[in-house]
Amino acid sequence: MEKSLLVSFKEDEYERESSTYVCCFSFLGQKVMKFREDILDFALKAWEMGRSDPRKVIFAIKMGLALSIVSSLIFWKESFHNIDIGQYSIWAILTVIVMFEFSIGGTFIKGFNRGLGTLVAGILAFCFAEVSLLAGNLEEVVIVISVFIVGFFASYLKLYPTMKPYEYGFRVFVLTYCILMVAGNRTREYNGAVTTRLVLIAVGAAVCLFVNICICPIWSGEDLHNLVVKNFKEVATSLEGCVDGYLKFVEYERTPSKILTYQASDDSMYKGYKSVMESKSQEETLLGFAIWEPPHGRYRMLNYPWKNYVKVSSALRHCAFMVMALHGCLLSEIQAPAEKRLVFCTELRRVGAEGAKVLRELGKKIEKMEKLGPGDILKDVHEAAEKLQKSIDRRSYILVNSESWEIGRRPREQEGAENVLDNKDSDDMKLGLKSLSETVLDLRSVSAAWTPSATQGASSQCVFRNQPAWPFGVGKEDTTYESASALSLATFVSLLIEFVARLQNVVDSFEELGEKAKFTS
């Protein structure tokens, strides 16, 4: 009996150990498979990145070529004025690593910062080195104090707003000064250390500029130009999408979690104006690089007006805000019924199409660097907006709750004040109290025994036939949502008209760019 219990206990223990080993191996196998999948996914994304933008592959090749060239200085066996070039070749290599940028403008500004920082640091190092030698036993004290002074002023001045583009130069200045002072103190050859480093940094900078300019150059100005053109196309596409979606009664799942997490982020119209909104920082970065680039390609002017490209894009972004608001109407909780939208379908669609046409035309003109023709590019869109406005004026009774109309009578509170006026002023007052919608209606059909319910029934038969209430399930006693749903249509129309009004700023900015950049006629 005891033997059988002992055997069963050992068998149970063996099974537990076996199951533990199996779980461990299974866990490790899952981790290995996940790691393999991550590596393959990374390789696939890297391949797609290079295929989508071959310039990135070219940049990597140019970087490797520049490093290979300056690395050959390591094998320089001969000395130059008793200075081992191979020993200090690391300065040329570091210059290529920190100075070589994706675009020509970025390389120029990095080279300027590094060259200026190194030059100023070399001059100060030479001056403080002479002072430290004259100090005798206090040489170390002078060096430490000089490092503190240099570090303090460099760190403080780089915080000044206008010095932000030169922050890298301040870092290079402090680093170079400290290295030169330490190296000079050990070798007692301050002049040789300063001269050698300046020469090797100049060699590294020359290699960077030569490789980056002569081999498939990448210009920030061209990227800025293409980005502005792309923004025009994106806003035009988003505008058409918003208008078409509104007229087709496109709805999203209106739950708070979906709206707050941007359920519509997969829509092309959302991505369109979102990219324009987020391009401001990219434009400023490209502008900072472009102003450093020499005349090239189609931009063969000194002091090319790159800032005007950013100005045009800012005016376009001002219009994109309206497109974002229009898209917000599609995402809103309160929606106008489809029947009411279709009343202004033709006018809304024409305004959207004409507005998108203007944006695409301006984008093509910028792309081809051409000026506008003799005609008014905004004529058609202004006519379409004016027609929409007149249509709204004629049918504005659709945008309000007909039960609250006071046609044919006025509140009693106003009757006492009107008694002191003459008959003519009284008639003018009555007309002033009536809206344009009321004057459009045929008031002769309104009987003397007018009641809100009778008018509502007539309106429903003529205009609002088969129109469902929103939100569904709201009782007749609660008309708040019904009124708000009608007003949401007015909101969409007003935003669209505001978009048309803002187009004038875009055209003015474009014409200013065309004059300064000397676009062709």
Q: Could you write a compact summary of the structure shown?
A:
It contains 20 helices and 2 strands. It has a two-stranded antiparallel ribbon. The protein is mainly α and 521 residues long.
Number of contiguous helices: 20
The radius of gyration is: 37 Å
What characterizes the major β-sheet?
A: 2 strands, antiparallel
Major sheet: arrangement of strands: 1-2
Following the backbone from N to C, one meets helices and strands in this order, namely HHEEHHHHHHHHHHHHHHHHHH
Low-confidence stretches: 254-263, 407-477
Structural class: mainly alpha
What percent of the residues sit in helical stretches (DSSP H or I)?
over 70%
Notes on the protein architecture:
By secondary structure, the protein is mainly alpha-helical. Helix content is 72%, strand content 1%. It is built from 20 helices and 2 strands. The protein has a two-stranded antiparallel ribbon. Helix 8 runs antiparallel to helix 14 (345-368). Residues 254-263 and 407-477 have low confidence and may be disordered.
